[in-house]
Amino acid sequence: MLINGVDLADGDVLTADVCIVGAGPAGLTLATSLGSNGRRVLVLEAGGFDATADRQSLASGEVDSHHHASEALSLGRSIQFGGTANQWIHRTVPWDRRLRARLLPGRPIDFEHRPGIPDTGWPIDRAALDPFYERAMAICRLADRDWTPAAWASTVRAWEFAGGRLETAVCQYGPRDVFTHQFRDDVIGSDRTTLAIDVVATTLHRATTGGEVAALQAVTPRGARIEARAKVFVLASGGVENARLLLASQGTDGAGLGNEHDVVGRYLMDHPEFRVGVIAPRTPDAIASAGFYDIHWVEGAPVSGILVVSEDEMRRSDLLSVGGIVIPQPKGYGTDAERSMKELAGLARGELPAHWAQHVRRIASSPVDAARVMRARRFPPAERYSEFRGGWSRPGVSVRFSVMEVVIATEQAPRPENRITLGSGRDALGRPRARATWTWGSREQDSIRRIRGILAEDIRAAGLGELVPWVGLNGGARPVFGGLHHPMGTTRMHEDPRLGVVDPDCRVHGVPNLFVAGSSVFTTSVGHANPTLTLLALAVRLADHLRAVLD
Asked: Which residue has the higher pLDDT, 68 or 259?
C-alpha cells in the first residue's frame, strides 16, 4: 500500500509491527522479507519516486575535510525511493539498458581483529555471514558462482603474479532497478506493507518506563506533524542519516539516543578512490591481456577483475586493503605534462601549488603530451572509458590505448575522530543538519605508499610493464572526492557499548526495540569492497532475528 505524505494531516498516527526508516536497499530488503512473512510493516521514505531539488537539499550539510568537496554530503546520497542505488552507474558494452553497481563480499580478514590496526575486529566473523551473502546475491540478481578468477575464466584470464603478495579478485555487477523499480512494485502491491513517501523522520521518543522507543515523530512537505507507532523500529537510512536521527533524538542525558558513551556518529569511514599511477606496458600485447579487468559478460553475467593485496600479505605487513581497477588510456596519460596539469588544477580551488613555475615550464616543454591530454578530455562519451564504463577490451578497441590507468578504492582505518555530528545550520524542515569531519591519517597514507610499491614490483616481475606512480596524497595534486559515497561505521557494531552503538544483533545498546540496518553498523569498512552486498547480508540476517523477536 502507498501513502503520499502530502495527503497526511497534522496529528495523523501510522501503526505497524515494524517501522522502518528509509527505503534504500537495506530498508527494502527488510520490508519485503518481513512483509512476506505476515508482519505489518511501515516504511517511511523522506523522498518520492523521482529526485527533486527540495528533497535532495535535505541531504546537504557541513563538511570538514581536506579531501572532500563542500557538498560531499549531498552529492554522495540520494533522497528518494531506492536510496543511493539511484547513483549506481556502471555499464558495459553491449549495454542491456541497466545501470549497475560493482559488488563483492568482504574477505575473512575484513572482519578480523588486526593487532597493528586499532579498533578492528567485528563481533561476528565472515563465516557467520556466508549463508546471508548467498541470499543477498539472489536479491541482487548475481550469478551463483564461486568468486575466484578460475570460476570466471572465459576468452580472457586474470594476470598471474608470483610471490603471493598480489592477486586478482572478482566483482559482479548488480542492477539498480531491483531496488528502484522491482521492490517498489512489490512493496506497493503488498497488503502487509505500507510505504509512506515524502515523510521525513525527525525524532525518536522513548517510553517513560522500560526504555523502549514508544513513537517516532515525522514531518511532511506541507508541514504536517505525524507520528508512527510500532513494536519495533529499524533505522535504515544510511551511514549519515542513521547517526543524525539518533543524535537529534531524546537520550537519557541529552547526548542523543543510544549515545551514553559518545559513540554515535564516530568512526566514520569511506572508500576513497583515486588514481595511484599508470602502467606503461612493456609490450603492445599487455593492454590486450588486461581484458579480465574490463567489465565484460560471462554467460549472461557482467563481471570484472580487480587487483588486491593478498590476505597473508596484509596480515604480515599490517596493510589496509585496496582494490585496483585497471582502465586503458590514450597517449599523454601518466606523462610529466599531465602530472603538472593536475598540480596546477589546484588553482581552481584557490591553491597555489609549490614550484608552480616549474610546472608551467614542464607543460610548455612538452606541448605534444599536453595537447594529447586535452584532446582526450574532449573525447565524446562513446570514446571514453572509465571504471564506470566497460567495453574497452573488445577486438579492435584496445589498440587505441598506450597506458593502463590504475584507480584504487582504499580501506580506511576506523578512527573515532572521524565522525558525524549535528551542525549549526538547519534544513528546510527545521532539523539540525549533519556535519562530517573526515581526514586521512598517516596509517592510511603509509599503507597506500607501500602497496603502490608492491604493485610496481609485482607488475614489473609479471612482465606487464612499469607502474609510473601518481604522487600527491596531499597538497595541490591530492585527490578531491566529490561525494561521501560509502559512509560507514557511525553506529558501529560492538559487544561493548563503550565502543559501539549496536550489539551483534544490530540492536541499539540499552534500547530494547530499536535496531539499525545498513553500512552504519560496520565495525570496519569491509576492506575495499562496495558495502552493498555486506549490508544486504546483514539486513537478511536482521530480518530473521526480528521474525524471532516478534513471534
From this structure: 259
Instruction: Give the 3-state secondary structure of 389-407.
Output: ECCCCCCCCHHHCCEEEEE
What 3-state DSSP class applies to 197?
A: strand
Residue 546 CB partners (closer than 8 Å, separation 6+): 18, 30, 34, 39, 232, 234, 515
Question: So what's the pLDDT on residue 329?
Answer: 83
Distance of CA 246 to the CA centre of its chain: 21
Alpha-carbon gap, residue 223 to 432, rounded angstroms: 16
Measured between alpha carbons, how far is 444 from 321 in angstroms, rounded to an integer? 10
What range does the domain containing 133 cover? 2-330+379-550
- With contact defined as beta carbons under 8 Å apart, do 287 and 398 qualify? yes
**Into how many domains does the chain fold?**
1
The three-class DSSP label of residue 265 is coil
* CA angle centred on 143, ends 328 and 112, rounded to 5°: 80
Residue 356 included in any domain: no
Does 41 fall in a domain? Answer: yes
Lowest mean pLDDT among 59-73, 164-178, 243-257: 243-257
| Cα 392 from Cα 401, distance rounded (Å) | 9
Axis crossing angle, helix 336-344 with helix 356-365, rounded to the nearest 10: 140
**Residue 348, domain member (yes or no):** no
CATH of the domain at 481: 3.50.50.60
Total residue count of the chain as it appears in this document? 551
CB 138 within 8 A of CB 443: no
Structural domain includes residue 132? yes
First to last CA, the chain: 24
> Phi then psi for 341, rounded to 5 degrees?
-60, -40
Per residue in 300-322, pLDDT tens? 999 999 999 999 999 999 999 99
Contact predicate 287/240, CB 8 Å: no
Evaluate whether 295 touches 93 at the Cβ level (below 8 Å). no
Full-prediction pTM beyond 0.85? yes
Pairing assessment for the beta strands 301-309 and 322-329 based on DSSP bridges: antiparallel
Q: Is the pLDDT confidence value at 248 over 80? A: yes
The Cβ-side half-sphere exposure at 65, using a 13 Å CA radius, reads 31
